[in-house]
Q: What sequence folds into this?
DNA sequence: CTCATATTCAACCGATCGGTTGACGATCGG
DNA sequence: CCGATCGTCAACCGATCGGTTGAATATGAG
């Protein structure tokens, strides 16, 4: 029997499949950033980065909050956690070190609000 | 500075982004299977499944070995492990429970040949 | 008010994706 | 040998992707 598909994973993995987007995530790991600052190190247009950020936001991997005229981008590790849960637990195996991974995320990223 | 891109991850995450391919991986978790048997529960052509399997093989998530006229598909957890390593360690953080995860894979899938 | 900055929108482009169909090569069984 | 089975190949299709440009929309600064 085919396992029930988890539609959220499609977007998360598709978002992770692009090296530009993974680089953006790495940058956001260090700090929240404005769209323009995210775009600065890349050799592509601001509009392209804006699209990448929209894809990341749609997948849940980041959130975006507009304060004034600048839109701040913030890493959202929950989506990454879901993908990792699938990786470790897809199939019938117990997610043995899931608790440890969650603790890792808590420690690194702070408690989820 | 933008982190060096890891090209293998593109293919792995792209492969994981499709629900059909994830379902195939789940099926292969239980047992090695022939292409026709993989295709059986899906409502699409054999050629489509053959393509999906080729994509999974190109990403390294599975391997295919032709014995006689049937081609056997086998899960290759190494690629999944690489992706999981990136997830837990992307950025500068130490992969705290990577060892535990590798041990988990060893236990569940057996030692790598 | 005016000008600059921050970001998105809209249209467009070539490339790739996920799927189909039909023909084809290889291999097995009788 | 013959016919059925296993799997891929090739061409095609519409849809989506990743990128570009140029115009448009806020918002902030002076």
A:
């Amino acid at each position: 029997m085919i396992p029930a598909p988890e539609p959220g994973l499609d977007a998360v993995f598709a978002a992770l499949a692009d090296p530009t987007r993974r680089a953006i995530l790495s940058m956001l790991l260090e700090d929240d950033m404005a769209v323009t600052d995210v775009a600065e190190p890349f050799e592509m247009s601001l509009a392209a980065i804006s699209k990448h950020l929209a894809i990341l936001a749609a997948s849940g991997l980041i959130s975006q909050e507009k304060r004034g005229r600048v839109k701040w981008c913030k890493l959202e590790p929950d989506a990454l956690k879901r993908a990792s849960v699938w990786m470790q637990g897809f199939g019938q195996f117990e997610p043995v070190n899931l608790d440890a991974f969650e603790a890792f995320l808590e420690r690194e990223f702070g408690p989820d609000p």
Summary: Residues 18, 20, 44-45, 47-48, 51-52, 55, 66, 68-70 of chain A lie near DNA strand D (CB under 10 Å from a C1'). Confidence is low (pLDDT under 50) at residues 91-113 of chain A. DSSP finds six helices and three strands in chain A. The first helix of chain A runs from residue 7 to 16.
